[in-house]
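Design job #97: recover the sequence.
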């Protein structure tokens, strides 16, 4: 879940863009406040979506205020006026998931990847311990499901659904964490589908590289042929997007619905289009 779930900016109104940016900047500040300056560099749109989803369902609005950006002191940015559990939670989820990504990168990547992961690991191991103290349940579920993911990949399963299951179950837990009643049930479904979408999109994005390196990829294991794999991946991802929209429409938001709708109805399809066109520049762009 790193960089795929983001808004389609050309269709955002100016006020919507300013609000989206305010949540982005607020989460950036929360990462620095809770963990340290280096945590800010891993900020991802996916976790802005998570924070906005949680904030949008809360009854009370935090309000906004202008504050100076540490990276550009001459510029004032809009941020949330009050501390928020949604921001703290989203920041902790990002730290915990990034920690396991580092472990995976060190295991699977080449020398360059191992050097990068080895350099970052001591810093983020410290951050990880702080995040675990705040949300031990997230760590427990993440560790268990990442172990299951490793087992599926080691067995080189040909089942795309089985390969996507750990990520889907992880976001099912994360999205519904702390929620109650009908919202909890809807968010479980939404999180499961979002997790599956992210896994499938990432697998499609890595398809050609995995083919060259002969790395595990469920689409390649199942379909063998590259073109057939791409077409089936596209169909599965589009179907998942439709189901995500159905679950999303069942939620009753207090705010941010138009921005979240932009992400689901325009952002996700646009990311899929970028992947199919191999537009890596847009995918890796994390700045606002």
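Job complete. Output follows.
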């Amino acid at each position: 879940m790193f960089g795929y779930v983001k808004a389609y900016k050309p269709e955002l109104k100016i006020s919507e863009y300013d609000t989206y940016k305010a949540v982005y900047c607020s989460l950036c500040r929360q990462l620095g406040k809770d963990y340290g300056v280096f945590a800010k560099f891993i900020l991802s749109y996916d976790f802005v979506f998570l924070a906005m989803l949680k904030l949008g369902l809360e009854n009370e609005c935090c309000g906004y205020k202008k504050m100076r950006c540490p990276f550009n002191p001459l510029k004032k940015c809009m941020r949330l006026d009050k501390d928020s559990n949604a921001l703290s939670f989203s920041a902790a989820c990002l730290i915990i998931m990034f920690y396991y990504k580092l472990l995976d990168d060190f295991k699977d990547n080449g020398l360059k990847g191992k050097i990068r992961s080895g350099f970052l690991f001591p810093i983020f191991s410290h951050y990880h311990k702080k995040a675990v103290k705040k949300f031990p349940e997230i760590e427990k579920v993440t560790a268990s499901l990442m172990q299951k993911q490793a087992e599926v990949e080691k067995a080189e399963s040909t089942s795309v659904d089985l390969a996507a299951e750990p990520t889907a179950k992880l976001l099912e837990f994360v999205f519904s964490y702390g929620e109650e009643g009908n919202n909890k049930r809807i968010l479980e479904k939404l999180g499961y589908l979002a997790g599956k979408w992210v896994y499938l999109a990432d697998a499609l994005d890595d398809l050609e590289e995995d083919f060259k390196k002969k790395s595990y990829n469920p689409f390649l294991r199942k379909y063998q042929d590259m073109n057939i794999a791409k077409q089936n991946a596209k169909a599965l991802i589009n179907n998942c997007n439709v189901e995500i929209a159905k679950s999303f429409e069942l939620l009753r938001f207090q705010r941010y619905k138009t921005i979240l709708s932009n992400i689901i109805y325009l952002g996700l399809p646009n990311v899929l289009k970028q992947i199919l066109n191999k537009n890596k520049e847009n995918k890796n762009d994390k700045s606002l």
